[in-house]
Write a structure and sequence with these properties.
Number of helices: 7
Helix content: 55-70%
Distance between the termini: 89 Å
Shape: flat
Radius of gyration: 34 Å
Structural class: mainly alpha
Number of domains: 2
Largest sheet: none
Strand content: under 5%
Order of helices and strands: HHHHHHH
């Protein structure tokens, strides 16, 4: 019987290469899905306040430069410290401390801008500072209505003191009511943002405790 065995490598079938598993032991046909923990709420709030506070910081810087250059003369200083007679006490106080008031607005705007950028970058300190700013905004919204009531009440009394002066009661009431509606709306918005940022799921996104 003839020997039909094959010698050497001629006609031999090459063995398939070994299958090397992917890194991590995953099947290459199965894709890895990464969990995105960044909420849309935080991103949208951060960008909105970056734009608003950035513009406010720019305007506040220009106002401080203007006050420092134009109101540095002695006659302007004397005029701000001596308001016209009959001016409401609150208006006289704000006019006498105009530089401090404008500087405070600039500092709050800059702090809001910095915390908004930190909020976008998911820094926990920025979340805590932003919550504090929202609470401050609530107090400012409510306090602004009280300030307007005091100022308009003083103006109404001045008009009543003038013989034949117009009756400003309805006008003042309409302005105060309109301002109160907006103040309550903004106070509610600030409170809602602060509450959402204080929630457990948002705090976990920042790696902090609520």
């Amino acid at each position: 019987m003839r020997d039909v065995s094959c010698h050497g490598s001629r006609g031999a079938v090459a063995a398939p290469p070994p299958i090397v598993p992917e890194r991590g032991g995953l099947d290459p046909g199965i894709g890895m899905t990464a969990t995105n923990t960044r909420s849309t709420f935080v991103t949208v709030v951060a960008w909105i306040f970056i734009v608003l506070s950035g513009f406010a910081t720019f305007v506040g810087a220009l106002q401080n430069i203007m006050v420092a250059t134009m109101f540095s003369k002695p006659e302007f200083e004397a005029a701000m410290r001596a308001p016209p007679p009959g001016a409401p006490p609150l208006a006289a106080f704000m006019l006498g401390h105009l530089r401090l008031f404008i500087l405070a607005v600039l500092l709050v705007s800059a702090l809001t801008l910095a915390s908004s950028i930190g909020l976008l970058l998911r820094r926990n300190w920025a979340r805590l500072v932003f919550i504090g700013l929202m609470l401050l905004g609530m107090l400012w919204s409510i306090g602004s209505v009280l300030l307007q009531v005091a100022m308009f009440s003083s103006m109404r009394e001045q008009f009543h003191a003038v013989k034949g002066g117009p009756d400003m009661t309805a006008f003042v009431a309409a302005i105060v009511a309109f301002s109160a509606v907006f103040a309550i709306g903004f106070a509610g918005l600030y409170g809602w943002i602060a509450k959402r940022l204080s929630s457990r799921e948002i705090a976990a996104e920042f790696g902090g405790d609520p």
